[in-house]
Specification:
Helix content: 25-40%
Shape: globular
Number of domains: 2
Distance between the termini: 28 Å
Largest sheet: 7 strands, mixed
Number of helices: 14
Bound molecules: pyridoxal-5'-phosphate
CATH superfamily of the largest domain: Type I PLP-dependent aspartate aminotransferase-like (Major domain)
CATH architecture of the largest domain: 3-Layer(aba) Sandwich
């Protein structure tokens, strides 16, 4: 292991401070490391493995599709991609899909859509409003929308025309929105920024302002979408319809795929405007279809809603006794525990006791488990957290 870590640091770019763990296999909500130690996985590869690990339907879909065809490019029709787009459209308010390979790419596509829409439908409006503390990805466009200086500062100058306003402050947004603004980008529940849910009446008011000023409202549901809030889309939880939405993390259950969905009224791309060599290929589309079948047709989302309510109840109980927890935030299975200190050392203690959890900002412990968790997994998680907090 130490050898592997050392070899890694010789040849891998220094982009991550990794934990001294190499995960080698997983089954359901448990994963094992190279020594055979088992962990209960409440991070799910950062809100990705919604079906847990080694789910039979997903494994089957990927292996069968891999044997048929892995890639062919978007120069040809891809049956699985069309079926996937149909399924997304049938279960949402959106009409059209564009597929790519990650969350940041989905947001790049959304920004280009917004710019083109501004050009052809709003007299060349090009500015974008985004929120402070937001996270939209690492490529330069999406990074320009990411309202956290620590991610941006080494890479300026970024995209011009982006303005940031605080979450849940409708007056600030009202002051910034203008005829030059083509779109407002919002994560309905901020993820990397610390698990901060938008307030429902805030999003309702944002929708109203966007309607009044003929501005696109685009939700980044890369993390909070696809069942995490207890609804297929986070905006369904809120009852507020955006014009377009971006998806990724959970969509392929671990196989990389991202998507931009939009209403017909906003679907202004024409051939040549945008593209992706890999996006929506047969393998990725087959994986996403398997995930959506579990989420929607097999009602995994409904089950996750029940266990999510139970998890919140147990966490609130824990917060009553563990003074280290200042606040339990989040919706259903997207949860942040605001601590009174750095989360890092506590995460390592959780590892030692067999629990994987994450961080969202320095003092927030992030729980984004697979949607297949059950009550006894919640009990195990709570017992380990209680143990760690007691120390
Ligand atoms: C993770 C994340 C992204 C970036 O996704 P990548 O697949 O890492 O590019 C964008 N937006 C939100 C809200 C995210 O949580």
């Amino acid at each position: 292991m130490n050898k592997l870590m050392e070899r890694g640091s010789n040849v891998l770019m220094n982009t991550y401070t990794r934990f001294p763990i190499a995960l080698t296999e997983g089954k359901g909500v448990f994963v094992k490391d190279q020594h055979g130690n088992e962990y209960l996985d409440f991070l799910a590869g950062i809100a990705v493995n919604v079906l847990g690990h080694g789910h039979p339907s997903l494994t089957k879909a990927i292996s069968e599709q891999a044997a048929e065809m892995i890639h062919c490019s978007n120069l040809y029709h891809i049956q699985q991609q069309t079926v996937l787009a149909e399924k997304l459209a049938a279960n949402s308010v959106f009409d059209k899909a564009f597929f790519c390979n990650s969350g940041t790419e989905a947001n790049e596509a959304a920004m280009k859509l917004a710019r083109k829409w501004g050009r052809v439908r709003k007299n060349g409006a090009y500015k974008i409003i985004s929120l402070s503390q937001s996270f939209h990805g690492r490529t330069l466009g999406a990074l320009s929308l990411t309202g956290q200086p620590k991610y941006q500062e080494n890479f300026t100058p970024l995209l011009p025309g982006v303005e940031f306003v605080p979450l849940n402050d409708i007056d600030a947004l009202a002051q910034s929105i203008s005829e030059e603004v083509c779109a407002v980008f919002i994560e309905p529940v901020q993820g990397e920024g610390g698990i901060f849910p938008a307030r429902r009446n805030y999003l309702t008011e944002v929708r109203r302002l966007c309607d009044e000023t003929n501005t696109l409202l685009i939700f980044d549901e890369v993390q909070c979408g696809l069942g995490r809030t207890g609804e297929l889309f986070a905006h369904q939880y809120y009852g507020v319809e955006p014009d377009a939405v971006t998806l990724a993390k959970a969509l392929g259950g671990g196989f990389p795929i991202g998507a931009l969905l939009s209403k017909d009224s906003a679907s202004v791309f024409q051939p040549g405007d945008h593209g992706s060599t890999f996006g929506g290929g047969p393998l990725a589309s087959a994986a996403a279809l398997a995930v959506l079948t579990e989420l929607i047709d097999h009602n995994l989302i409904g089950k996750a809603r029940e266990v999510g309510a139970y998890l919140h109840k147990q966490l609130n109980g824990l917060a009553d006794t563990a003074k280290i927890i200042q606040e339990v935030r989040g919706i259903n299975l997207m949860i942040g525990l605001q601590l009174d200190r750095e989360a890092g050392p506590l995460i390592e203690r959780c590892h030692q006791k067999g629990l994987l959890v994450g961080k969202a900002g320095a003092e927030v412990l992030r729980l984004v488990p697979p949607l297949i968790i059950e009550k006894d997994h919640v009990d195990t998680c709570i017992a380990i957290l209680a143990d760690v907090f007691k120390e």
